[in-house]
Automatic annotation (TrEMBL):
Residues 1-20 have a biased composition (Low complexity). Pfam families: GAF, HATPase_c, HisKA, PAS, PAS_2, PHY. GO terms for molecular function: phosphorelay sensor kinase activity; photoreceptor activity. Residues 218-373 form the Phytochrome chromophore attachment site domain. InterPro entries: GAF (IPR003018), GAF-like_dom_sf (IPR029016), HATPase_C_sf (IPR036890), HATPase_dom (IPR003594), His_kinase_dom (IPR005467), HisK_dim/P_dom (IPR003661), PAS (IPR000014), PAS-like_dom_sf (IPR035965). This is Phytochrome A. Residues 859-1077 form the Histidine kinase domain. Residues 1-21 are annotated as: Disordered. One of its GO terms (biological process) is regulation of DNA-templated transcription. Belongs to the phytochrome family. Keywords: Chromophore, Photoreceptor protein, Receptor, Sensory transduction, Transcription, Transcription regulation. It comes from Actinidia rufa. Residues 575-645, 708-760 form the PAS domain.
Length: 1084
């Protein structure tokens, strides 16, 4: 709901509102900074925060000039930290255009240990930067400066010409120039001998491996592991995970400290604690030795406010890493770079504090940055998992609420279980419906609710929803009278006069503030929560408006269901036929097994590879066809697939037969997929394989050959897979013909380029990967292989030169020298064939069609219930009128049919019926009630065909009081009657006869054996349909066959069975069941 006070309302939690909040917060940050600079040591932070919050709600913000000056001051600082120096050089001429005051002393100081020969270089404006360093260093620096993604080469080890002092050069590209930070290599450090991010990544290899090994489902465990790894990696006194909440205030969610330090875990800090300008810079530069930075430089000196902050925290040194996560949906395989990038959000920070001066070398800081990026990917996945769980729970609750609404109209959300309090976390709820108030839990008094409603109509008349954590802050005049029991409120307007409320009690005392208390005002809350509320709002609006419209046509519902099923089956048959044809003719080996592991699918290609024809393979167990060494792998894969867990890239060996026996086993890499029927039940497993025998032969030869490998790698033979390689420093040193063919880039174009960044990258690389996450994942795989870790096959994708998107598997092997040291990597690609892609595409189409049909059936099933409720309501209204006996009997038959329909709609799992696991509902009834309701369901069709129905049952049987599941018996009889009418000729006859016998089980309990015979004239039911009723032809069961099968299974649940007897000119369904009966008391 909108508000007359802009600072107290929110209509959306989307991006525009977030941007407005950031702009407003930046204005507050600017004012605080101006006050700090003006007042100096007399500055009172807590008082300033309270004054800023009070002013922001009543006055217009100060001029934009203050904010602009503040941002300029933050981003354009002129001081650097003294442990290094800085040069700004022209990108084209490599001449110095600016330098820090300490640069001449650090870079051109003459060494007294090793006297220089001749004049030493003088650093000044216009000096060629190459003249300051040794020849080899100058060459390395010039090569790096010509690199597109120059930051990927950081740090670059250079040596001063005059002193021989080693420095790490950290290069950043800005507009029309390059900024180079120079950090001296400490004597105790072992300097990196080559440039490149891959060298720094090695330092974080252990930590990355541990993060990746964590099971998903706990973001707390992830944060604890991250701070522990950074704590061990950097050696700081304190490491914290600092999370930003939706209203921009922060919280320490995880922490590790050395003994004797005060814990900060659980403390909250206001939004002004870390200014918005600093957060923007964190998105640009993800690792900082201080909290603020400038233009990518890691040497920027802290501002005065940050120095005061560090003093307040009893800290001398700090290192902060940004945790930047993705937001929004990612586009598909579009080549448009603007569509590939997800919107970024600063989730939080990894903060390190130290009580004494501490310097962290750049390679270790770079490793920490990469570790933070890996951590951010895992945080993104955890957030997505949390959102999925929340949305799933909300959808489940909404579905249950819908069912409640159908049973009890609008008030069901308050009186039934679950109710509206299960949808939103709250302490109470209230509904204003037709001028009456219905309440749950802790809520205001009725007169207070009317005051709130009046306030909403006065200040929020034009909106339909509002959420606030404090009614007092939102401006409600009666908030103080509500006390602590009611503090926050969420409200939605359903119609002009109907309103739904949720209330929350006071909870501010639960938050411990480490700074001034944050004042968030009014905001809408989590988008997922408001989406759930909005969905319920729409549902209730439709329910309220449609409360009086309850007519429905049962025939049209059945027709719609039948048409829907028929269309789905036809569509599935067409897609299935095409898929079978593709599988049989595919060049990829494909096989399938049933739930017992017996082969029931064996295409031509797998037959050619193994020498085993299809007629000999069908019926054999899969484990008997694979090598003994692969039996355990195949068994585990088969068990997992039968449980619905699909396995990918599993390697095993399969035996050869006949003329192929001498060639040895075939090496396959397979994807195991569960085969499901239209009800999503697993009925088998099929394996889409790729023959890698040739590749394995190549790799075996490669491991045996110690000399020249080029004859193998550069061989154009199609058996050679795409191969590329890198040296130990990350430069591309191999690119075979198969790789050139698949990528479109020739060997000469990629050799001696940086593999990460130039060859594979996100922007100007030769082979562009999909997004930053894919780039980081590739770096992790290469780093793990370089450090000697065994790596599984990695799913890898990239765009070729022509823009085609290639999906493949990447296998990485390390190169070793004579001493066993890693000298580089070999990377092998496994690329799926076009036929395999087509098979997988058809498979996806089949799954999509099945899901679409199931969704449609679920939709129809759900929306039948509403008109069914209308029919029941109409019947109940008729029951209240004066009726004759015949009318009452007709009305009773209608009620039984309605109850039967409702029970059938609840049958979501036919397997329970077919397998005999369903519970029967035992009630008292007479056969007359059941039979009349069953006959009424076929009367319209029998009348159209002129078929006469004759009831030959004795009155004693019809009036006998029985005990059993009457609705299931009614369903069975109606099904057999309908089948008999369907296959009887026009003008024929249908007769119903039967017998009843009793066995006494005690004084008052009797076991009834009931046999009913439904006889119809004509040729009878086709043999195929009868066979399906008895469970035959399970793979090709028709709609009528499924119905008859279910009816027979229901009869068997009643300890009975069904027979079908053919005679001359007529046929008979014989239904025998066991029921219970009670002896009638004797009249004395």
């Amino acid at each position: 709901m909108s508000s007359s006070r802009p600072s107290q309302s929110s209509a959306s939690s989307g991006q525009p509102k977030q941007s407005a909040r950031i702009i407003a917060q930046t204005t507050v940050d600017a004012k605080l900074h101006a006050d700090f600079e003006e007042l100096g040591s007399s500055f009172d932070y807590s008082t300033s925060v309270r004054v800023s919050n009070a002013v922001s709600g009543t006055e217009k913000p100060r001029s934009d000039e203050l904010t602009t000056a503040y941002l300029h001051h933050i981003q354009k600082g002129k001081l650097i930290q003294p442990f290094g120096c800085l040069l700004a050089i022209d990108e084209k001429t490599l001449r110095v255009i600016a330098y820090s005051k300490n640069a001449p002393e650090m870079l051109t100081m003459v060494s007294h240990v090793v006297p220089s020969v001749g004049d030493h270089t003088v650093l000044g404006i216009g000096t060629d930067v190459r003249t300051i360093f040794s020849d080899t260093s100058a060459a390395a620096l010039q090569k790096a400066l010509g690199f597109g993604e120059v930051s990927l080469l950081n740090p670059i080890l250079v040596y001063c010409k005059t002193s021989g002092q080693p420095f790490y050069a950290i290069v950043h590209r800005v507009t029309d120039s390059l900024i180079i930070d120079f950090e001296p290599v400490k004597p105790y450090e072992v300097p990196l001998t080559a440039a490149g991010a891959l060298q720094s990544y090695k330092l974080a290899a252990k930590a990355i491996t541990r993060l990746q090994s964590l099971p998903s489902g706990s973001i707390e465990r992830l944060c604890d592991t991250m701070v522990q790894e950074v704590f061990e990696l950097t050696g700081y006194d304190r490491v914290m995970t600092y999370k930003f909440h939706e209203d921009d205030h922060g919280e320490v969610v995880s922490e590790m400290t050395k003994p004797g330090h005060e814990p900060y875990s659980g403390l909250h800090y206001p939004a002004t604690d870390i200014p918005q300008a600093a957060r923007f810079l964190f998105l640009k530069n993800k690792k900082l030795p201080i909290n603020l930075t400038l233009c990518g430089s890691t040497l920027t000196a802290p501002h005065s406010c940050h120095l005061q902050y560090m003093e307040n925290m009893n800290s001398i040194a700090s290192l902060v890493m940004a945790v930047v996560v993705n937001e929004g949906d990612e586009e598909g395989e579009s080549s448009d770079s603007s569509q590939q990038q997800k919107r970024k959000r600063l989730w939080g920070l990894i903060v390190c504090h130290h009580t004494t001066p501490r310097f962290v070398p750049f390679p270790l800081r770079y490793a920490c940055e990469f570790l933070a990026q890996v951590f951010a990917i895992h945080v993104t996945k955890e957030l997505e998992l949390e959102n999925q769980i929340v949305e799933k729970n909300i959808l489940r609750t909404q579905t249950l609420l819908c069912h409640v609404l159908m049973r009890d109209a609008a008030l069901g959300i308050m009186s039934q279980s679950p109710n509206v309090m299960d949808l939103v976390k709250c302490d109470g709820a209230a509904l204003l419906y037709r001028n009456k108030i219905y309440k749950l839990g802790l809520t205001p008094m009725d007169f207070q609710l009317h005051d709130i409603i009046s306030w909403l109509y006065e200040y929020h008349l034009d909106s339909t929803g509002l959420s606030t954590d404090s009614l007092h802050d939102a401006g409600f005049p009666g908030a103080l009278a509500l006390g602590d029991a009611v503090c926050g409120m969420t409200v939605v307007r359903i119609t002009s006069n109907d309103i739904l409320f949720w209330f929350r009690s006071h909870s501010a005392a639960e938050i411990q503030w480490g700074g001034a208390k944050h004042e968030p005002g009014v905001y809408l809350g989590r988008a997922t929560r408001m989406d759930a509320i909005h969905s319920l709002q729409i549902i209730l609006r439709n329910v309220f408006k449609g409360a009086e419209a309850t007519d429905a046509n049962a025939d049209s519902i059945h027709t719609r269901l039948s048409d829907l099923k028929r269309e789905g089956i036809q569509e599935l048959e067409a897609v299935t036929s095409e898929m079978v044809r593709l599988i049989e003719t595919a060049l990829a080996p494909i096989l399938a097994v049933d739930v017992d592991g017996l082969v029931n699918g064996w295409n031509v290609k797998i037959g050619e590879l193994t020498g085993l024809p299809v007629d000999k393979a069908i019926g054999r167990h899969l484990l008997s066809l694979v090598e003994d060494s692969s039996a355990d792998i195949v068994k585990k894969m088969l068990n997992a697939a039968l449980q619905g867990k699909e396995e990918k890239s599993i390697h095993f060996e399969i035996r050869t037969h006949g003329s192929r026996r001498d060639f040895g086993p075939i090496n396959l890499v397979v994807n195991a997929c569960a085969s499901r029927d239209i009800r999503e039940n697993v009925v088998g497993v099929y394996f889409v394989a790729q023959d890698i025998t040739g590749q394995k032969i190549v790799m075996d030869k490669f491991t045996r050959i110690e000399g020249d490998y080029k004859a193998i790698v550069q061989n154009p033979n199609p058996l050679i897979p795409p191969i590329f390689g890198t040296d130990e420093f990350g430069w591309c040193c191999e690119w075979n013909p198969a790789m050139a063919e698949i990528s479109g880039w020739d060997r000469e174009e990629v050799m001696n380029k940086m593999l990460l960044g130039e060859v594979f990258g996100t922007h100007n690389a030769c082979c562009r990967v999909k997004n930053q996450e894919a780039f980081i994942s590739l770096g992790i795989v290469l780093n793990n292989a370089m450090t000697g870790q065994e790596s599984e096959k990695f799913s890898f994708s990239f765009f070729t030169r022509s823009g085609n998107y290639v999906e493949c598997l990447l296998c990485v092997s390390k190169k070793l020298d004579r001493d066993g040291a890693v000298t580089g990597l070999f990377c092998f690609l496994q690329h799926a064939s076009q036929e395999l892609k087509q098979v997988l595409h058809v498979q996806r189409l089949t799954e999509q069609t099945s899901v679409k049909r199931l969704k449609a059936l679920a939709y129809v099933r759900t929306h039948i219930r509403n008109p069914l409720s209308g029919i029941i309501f109409s019947r109940k209204m008729i029951e209240g009128t004066k009726l004759g006996e015949e009318q009452k009997q007709l009305l009773d038959s209608s009620a039984r049919c309605q109850n039967q329909l409702r029970k059938i709609l609840d049958d979501t799992d036919l397997d329970c019926i077919i397998d005999g696991y369903m519970d029967l509902e035992m009630v008292e009834f007479t056969l007359q009630e059941v039979l009349f309701a069953s006959i009424s369901q076929v009367m319209m069709r029998s009348n159209r065909k002129g078929i006469r129905i004759v009831n030959e049952l004795a009155d004693e049987i019809m009036s006998e009081t029985l005990y059993g599941d009457s609705l299931r018996l009614q369903q069975v009889l109606a099904d057999f009657l309908l089948t008999s009418v369907h296959f009887a000729p026009n003008g024929g006859q249908l007769g119903i006869a039967g017998s009843l016998t009793k066995d006494f089980l005690g004084v008052s309990i009797q076991l009834v054996h009931l046999e009913l015979r439904i006889t119809h004239t004509g040729d009878g039911v086709p043999e195929e349909l009868v066979s399906q009723m008895f469970g035959g032809e399970a793979d090709d069961t028709s709609e009528e066959g499924i119905s008859l099968l279910v009816s027979r299974k229901l009869v068997k649940l009643m300890n009975g069975d069904v027979q079908y007897l053919r005679e001359a000119g007529k046929s008979t369904f014989i239904v025998s069941i066991e029921l219970a009966a009670a002896s009638k008391p004797r009249v004395v």
